[in-house]
Amino acid sequence: MTAEHEQAPQSTRQPLLELKKVTKHFGGLAAVQDVDLAIYPQEIVSIIGPNGAGKTTVFNLITGIYLATSGEIIFEGQPLKKASPHQVVQRGLARTFQNIRLFNNMTVLENVLVGEHLRLKASILDAVFRPPWVKQEEEEARRRAIELLSFFGQHLVDRQDEYVINLSYADRRRVEIARALASEPKLLLLDEPTAGMNEAETMEAVHYIRRLRDELHLTILLIEHKLMVTMGISDRIAVLDYGRKIAEGLPDEIRRDERVITAYLGKAATADRQTWQVALRPQPEGEANNHHE
Ligand SMILES: Nc1ncnc2c1ncn2[C@@H]1O[C@H](COP(=O)(O)OP(=O)(O)OP(=O)(O)O)[C@@H](O)[C@H]1O
Question: Which positions fall inside the ABC transporter domain (predicted)?
C-alpha cells in the first residue's frame, strides 16, 4: 500500500454512496430485495452474482433509470430521491453500459464532447450566434475531451476524428469511459468493463481502472463477470443472489465464502469447488490490490 492510498478507517468516514434497504419489484418479481451497500471515497467495489441476480437493476436504480419500490439511495449524504438520469449525472455519478452505448454515426471526439454538454453554459441560441465566449468554451471543451482520450494513450487521440464504429470493441469501451469522465463524476459505475475483450485487453482495462482511482481519485463501482478481474481489482466485493446481498467482504473472504460458492456452483456442484478456487486464485505478486490491507 502506498502512502497516497492510506485512508481513515471506514467507520470514521462518510460513504460517498449508500444504499439502505433498497428493493425493486417488477410485478411479482423482487429483482432487488433489501440491499444495503456503502461505498467509500476512492474505493473500488464490485458487485458480482449469477445471471439475473439483480446487478444491473442496482445500477439502474442508482442512476435514476428505475425508481426503487422502497429503500433509500444516498449520495454525498443527500438522498437521490426521484432524481432523473440527467440529474444524477449532474450530482456527480456517471456510468457505462453492458452493451456499449455510443453514437456510431459520430466521431470519437464528438462522442466525448456529448459527455461534456452538461457542463457547458451555451444555449442553442448562443450556439447559433456564437459570441466569442461560446467559441472559447467550445475550444476549452475540445481541449479537455482530447486530454480525456489521452488518458488511454496517444492512439485514441490520433483517431479522434474517426467514426467510433470503426474502432475495436476494446477502444469503444475506452471511449465510453472517456465520455463518462467528461461529466466530471465523483463516482463511476462500470457495467462489465471488460466484456468482449481478449486477455491482453482485459489486463490493460484492469490497469486503467486502477489508474482512474489512483490518478483521477475516482470512486468506482463495477459489475464484472470475469472473477479473476474482480478478485484482483476490488477493495471489497458484494455478492447478489436472487436480488439479495448474500455476502460482502474482501476478495479473500468472498473467495472462501460457502454461500457464494453455492450460489455460483449450485449445491450439487461441490466437486467443482477446486475449479472455483483455481478461478479465484489470488493474482500474482504486484498485481493484487492491497488498497485496504
Ligand atoms: N425492466 C424489467 N422488467 C421486468 N423484469 C426485469 C426488468 N429488468 C430486470 N428484470 C428481471 O430482474 C431480475 C434481475 O435482472 P438483472 O438484469 O438486474 O440481473 P443481472 O444480475 O444484471 O443479470 P446479468 O448478469 O444476466 O446481466 C431478472 O429476473 C430480470 O429478468
Answer: 17-267
Q: Is the CB–ligand 1 distance for residue 55 below 6 Å?
A: yes
Rounded Cα distance, 133 and 139, in Å: 10
- CA–CA gap between residue 34 and residue 10 (Å, rounded): 22
Which contiguous run of DSSP H or E holds residue 35?
strand 29-39
In this predicted model, what pLDDT tens digit does every residue of 74-117 receive, in sequence order? 999 999 988 889 899 999 999 998 877 888 888 999 999 887 77
Task: Please write the tens of the pLDDT for every residue from 36-86.
Answer: 999 999 999 999 998 899 999 999 999 999 999 999 999 999 999 888 898
- In whole angstroms, give the CA distance from residue 255 to residue 279: 10
Residue range(s) of every CATH 3.40.50.300 domain in the chain: 1-92+186-293, 102-184
The amino acid that residue 202 corresponds to is T
Question: What is the distance in A from the centroid of ligand 1 to the CA of 82?
Answer: 21
Which of 174, 154, 150, 152 is CA-nearest to residue 164? Answer: 174
3-state class of 75 per DSSP?
Answer: strand
Percent of the chain with pLDDT over 70: 80
Write down the CATH number for the domain with range 1-92+186-293. Answer: 3.40.50.300
Taking the CA of residue 98 as reference, the ligand 1 atom at the shortest distance is: 27
CATH 3.40.50.2000 assigned to domain 102-184? The reply is no
